Each structure stands twice: as structure tokens, then as C-alpha cells.
Amino acid sequence: MDEQTRADAIHRLKSVAGHVNGIIKMLEDDRYCIDVIKQIQAAQTALARVSESILDAHLRTCVTTAIQGDEAAERERVLSEITEVFRHTSRS
Amino acid sequence: MDEQTRADAIHRLKSVAGHVNGIIKMLEDDRYCIDVIKQIQAAQTALARVSESILDAHLRTCVTTAIQGDEAAERERVLSEITEVFRHTSRS
Amino acid sequence: MDEQTRADAIHRLKSVAGHVNGIIKMLEDDRYCIDVIKQIQAAQTALARVSESILDAHLRTCVTTAIQGDEAAERERVLSEITEVFRHTSRS
Amino acid sequence: MDEQTRADAIHRLKSVAGHVNGIIKMLEDDRYCIDVIKQIQAAQTALARVSESILDAHLRTCVTTAIQGDEAAERERVLSEITEVFRHTSRS
């Protein structure tokens, strides 16, 4: 993954960690359940955005290198990983 | 996409269409809401499985060809499409 | 579920069945994989909309009746079903 | 929400925050993209489990109280919120 994507992902994950700590505070303050759930859903969406960004960078670096390379097993491996990641997100 | 994947996808989609018609019948018979919802969720899962299978075949054919090819714009296009498909599945 | 929701759900599911048959035709015509996947995702979204509508009606009818009723076991049952349906949609 | 659910949710969210910090460390250590994505997906799943648990408790407390109560507007409000939460999770 390129440096820009990595720095951006770290920045966004720090924001998610802060968000989750904020949700813990909401629970400690006994805030309304639905408000807590909405914040958890927002944190899930933020995580999904980070995954997408990393996957996009991965496709343009490792996957491209592997597919342009000579090793069939390596090509197979990187492509299977993409399918597996996709399967996880589309389970339901 | 290879012939095997295509034939398999057609077969599975025919099964989904039959499943959806069965759900319509459940509604006409005034079946219990939760049972209907569970069948709809099962049909969604079946559709997700077909998408995964087509994506997997697409990666091994069109995407591999494009990445091994000489056209940067074409490589860019196929990779952007993968990210876009992934984004749709991971929205929430 | 009320008649309006039921009629609407049947109408929308007939549309989904037609959509799925259209996707089968796309595959038979050897259309581009990503276009096929996007149509499958659209069909999944349409199914999700039907589930939501049925769940909403279910909450306002069966669930409300059960919760206002005297049977604790019945209240427990309808609430567990809602959680189970929610679990399925939020698996990933 | 009952105390047990609240304490459990706080405990699990602290674990998620630790998990996210671990993923940041993975990025700083330049770990393989797919391994990072899988950990992000695991964190999303953990968050989904917390939402489910809170929703389940909410149904058994606030929602049950509102539905057994005399205010139609309040009943309407709590039921609409459940549908809205469900819609968010089932978007795709």
C-alpha cells in the first residue's frame, strides 16, 4: 500500500478509536439505546470506508504486481484473497 | 467469465427466481411475517453467492487480462470497478 | 401484516422476479460481468426494501398485539424474532 | 437498557477500541493489506454484535414499556426507530 493510503488509514482509524471511546462514554452516561446504536453503526461505516481504501490501494500495488508477474500460484493467491474479502462483506 | 461459471450462475438465478415466486405465494397465503422475511433474507444470500462467483471469474479473466495488458486506462478502469463493487456490498 | 403492505410486497417481489429473469438474460447474452453484478446488487437492495416494509408492518401489528397481551412467553417469542432478523442483516 | 447489557456493551466496546489500536499498529508496521482488512472486518462484526445486544435489551425495556403505554405517538416513535435501525443494517 502507498504511503498516502497508509497515513490516511491510520488517521481514520484513530478517529474510529476516538469514536468508540465516545460511545463507551454514552453508555456510561446511560444515553438512549437508539442513539448509541446509531453511533455504533456510524463507526461500522467508517471502518468499511477504511477497508475500501486499503483494498483499492492493494489492487493497484500488490495485486497488479502479482498478476503481471510470472508465478501462477502467487496470482491465484492474491485473487482468492480478493474474493474472500468480498465474500465477508456480502454475507447477508 | 468462463462457461462453467456462467452456466452455474444462470442455474442459481433460476433457483432464486423460483424462490421469489415461492415467497409471493407465501404472502398470498398470508403466512407469518417473520417466516416471509427469513425467506427474503435467504434469497438475498443466494444472490450474494452468485455475485461472488461472477466476481471471482471476472478477476481471473477480464481483470487479469487488463492488468497484464499495455493500456494503463484499461487497468485503471477494471480496478476501479472492483473497488466500486466492494463499496456497494460494504456500505453499512 | 395489513393488506396494503401485503399487496405492495407482492407487487415489489414480482418486480424482483422479473429483474432476476432479466439478469439471467444478461448472462445468456454474455454481458459484461460487472454490469451483471451491479444488477444482482440492485435486486438484493430491492429485496431488503421489501423485508423492511414487512418488518415495519409486523411491528405495528403482531408485535404490538403480543406486547400488549398477557402472555409473557408470546412477548418473549416475538421480541427474540426481531433480534434474530436484525442479527441476520448485520452479520458483517 | 439493563445494567448487565450496559456493562457487557462497555466491556466489548473497550475490546473493540483495543482492537482498532492494534490495527493502527499493524499499519505502522506495514503489515500485509489483506491481513489488515480482515482485522477491520472482525472489528465491524464485533460492533454489530454490540448493536444487536443493545437492540435486544431496548426491545425488552423501552419498546415494551412504550407499547404497553397509552401514548400512541410514543408507540409510533419507538417502532419507527426500530425500522430505521433495521434499514441501516440492511441497506445493501
Number of helices of chain A: 3
Tell me which oligomeric state these chains represent: homotetramer
**Helix-strand category of chain A:** mainly alpha
CATH superfamily of chain A: Metal-sensitive repressor, helix protomer
The CATH architecture category of chain A equals Up-down Bundle
N-C termini distance of chain A: 29 Å
Record field, number of beta strands of chain A: 0
Which chain pair shows the most residues in contact? Answer: A-D, 41 and 41 residues
Global shape of chain A: elongated
- Any idea how many domains of chain A? 1
Percent strand of chain A equals: under 5%
> Could you report the average pLDDT of chain A, rounded to the nearest whole number?
94
CATH topology of chain A: Methane Monooxygenase Hydroxylase, Chain G, domain 1
Unreliable spans of chain A: none
CATH level 1 class label of chain A: Mainly Alpha
Would you give an account of this structure?
The structure is a homotetramer of 92-residue chains. The first copy, chain A, is an all-alpha fold and 92 residues long. The first copy, chain A, has a single domain (3-89), classed as Methane Monooxygenase Hydroxylase, Chain G, domain 1 (Up-down Bundle), CATH 1.20.58. Helix content of chain A is 87%, strand content 0%. Chain A has three helices and no strands. Chain A has helices spanning 3-28, 33-68, 72-89. In chain A, α1 (3-28) packs antiparallel against α2 (33-68) and α2 packs antiparallel against α3. The two termini of chain A are 29 Å apart. The mean pLDDT of chain A is 94. Chains in contact: A-B, A-C, A-D, B-C, B-D, C-D. Chains C and D meet through α2 and α3 of C and α2 and α3 of D.
